Automatic annotation (TrEMBL):
GO molecular function terms noted in the UniProt entry: 2 iron, 2 sulfur cluster binding; dioxygenase activity; metal ion binding; monooxygenase activity; oxidoreductase activity, acting on paired donors, with incorporation or reduction of molecular oxygen
This protein's name: 3-phenylpropionate dioxygenase
Domain Rieske: residue ranges: 21-125
Domain of life of the organism encoding this protein: Bacteria
Pfam families: Rieske
Species of the source: Streptomyces cacaoi
Entry-linked Gene3D superfamilies: Naphthalene 1,2-dioxygenase Alpha Subunit, Chain A, domain 1 (3.90.380.10), Rieske [2Fe-2S] iron-sulphur domain (2.102.10.10)
InterPro entries documented for this protein: Cholesterol_7-desaturase, Rieske_2Fe-2S, Rieske_2Fe-2S_sf
Signal peptide as annotated in the record: none
Keyword annotations of the record: 2Fe-2S, Dioxygenase, Iron, Iron-sulfur, Metal-binding, Oxidoreductase
PANTHER family in UniProt: 3-KETOSTEROID-9-ALPHA-MONOOXYGENASE, OXYGENASE COMPONENT, IRON-SULFUR DOMAIN CONTAINING PROTEIN
Length: 340
């Protein structure tokens, strides 16, 4: 396995939690016949589509001499390493060693292959460790599976730790300040009280005295993959479909970079779906990118030790809860690896 059970809690906490699903890249990043090198959880990986269109995700390391397989040649259902021609299939098994046919490498599974799924236009992968290579259960967000809901994916990469991106989503109050000039978050009170409400899949962090006005609530969901759900009111000029929802996920690229995934969704069908798509692409999407840029600029400007020099108050309960959860999971995973 590439992901070791013996990594420290600090390494896991910095580079991403194990034994769960993570989004990796948008599906459109992996064209048929092409090889795509990606970094996720601090490791180098190779994504490629086999001849039948299915995806494979391999550690980007030839089992012969360690050369990057991503520099190799796509052979339909396998990859030929550029260095010495060693061929590896989508499951990580060496199928041919052209320089020495019949050598003992052939037929052996020597390259880590991760289970992958595609949903909502994104590639998700199971990042297990040596003790948990088989994928765990995955329940996808309802907005990505309900045929009556139209979800549009937005992806960006930020130079921030993955935890900062998640904490930003569990901090609804910043909408009333950082995004005050947004076309959807201009209204609402700049003072509020919050509460945490437990759910079977995570918890809500919500304002107790305001609903349906601004960024008033967020739900953290842990369903095999970590994601957040939130809703922001929309003016009538945004077309049919009622409230505007966002499903958010992050990919820990490495200790200092994060891939952010935002699905903007509305419950629309038929002509209303067409109207929503048209308005989004021609008018609304640009405004949403402006809001995301505000988040990116703020988070990238924060010092690396920002979370070590804070004075928190009641609005930060959702962030505190999230930090305790992730720190505890990192310590559990590291302890389990050391014991194993």
């Amino acid at each position: 396995m590439t992901l070791s059970t013996k990594d420290s809690a600090e390494h896991i906490h910095a580079n991403g939690l194990r034994n769960q699903w993570h989004p990796v890249v948008p599906s459109r990043f992996v064209e048929p016949g092409a090889l795509r090198r990606v970094t996720a959880l601090g490791e180098q990986w190779l994504l490629f589509r086999r001849a039948d269109g299915t995806l494979s995700m391999l550690a980007d390391r030839c089992p012969h001499r360690g050369a990057p397989l991503s520099l190799g040649k796509h052979l339909g259902d396998r990859i030929a390493c550029w260095y010495h021609g060693v061929e590896v299939d989508g499951g990580g098994t060496v199928t041919s060693v052209p320089g020495l046919p019949g050598c003992n490498l052939e037929g052996k599974t020597l390259v880590t292959s991760l289970p992958v799924r595609e949903a909502g236009g994104a590639v998700l992968a199971w990042f297990g460790d040596e003790e948990h290579p088989e994928p765990g259960e995955l329940t996808l967000p309802e907005p990505l599976t309900d045929p009556e809901i139209s979800a549009l994916l937005c992806y960006a990469e930020w130079n921030v730790p993955w935890r900062y991106a998640m904490e930003n989503l569990l901090d609804p109050m910043h909408g009333a300040f950082l995004h005050r000039d947004s076309h959807t978050m201009y209204d609402g009170d700049t003072t509020a009280k919050f509460r945490i409400r437990e759910t079977e899949r995570g918890y809500f962090f919500e304002k107790t005295d305001q609903r349906g006005v601004n960024f008033d609530w967020v739900e953290l969901c842990r369903t095999g993959v970590d994601w957040v759900d939130l809703s922001i009111p929309y003016p009538p000029s945004a077309g049919p479909g009622g409230p505007f929802g966002i499903v958010g996920m992050v990919c820990p690229v490495d200790a200092g970079r994060t891939g952010v995934f935002f699905w903007r969704y509305r419950k629309v069908s038929g002509w209303q779906r067409d109207t929503w798509h048209f308005l989004y692409r021609t008018l609304i999407e640009e405004r949403h990118w402006e809001v995301l840029e505000q988040d990116r600029v703020m988070l990238e400007a924060m010092p690396a030790d920002a979370d070590q020099r804070e004075n928190l108050y009641q609005h930060d309960l959702g962030v505190v809860r999230l930090r305790r959860l992730y720190r505890g999971l990192a310590e559990q995973q590291s302890a389990a690896g050391s014991a194993g």
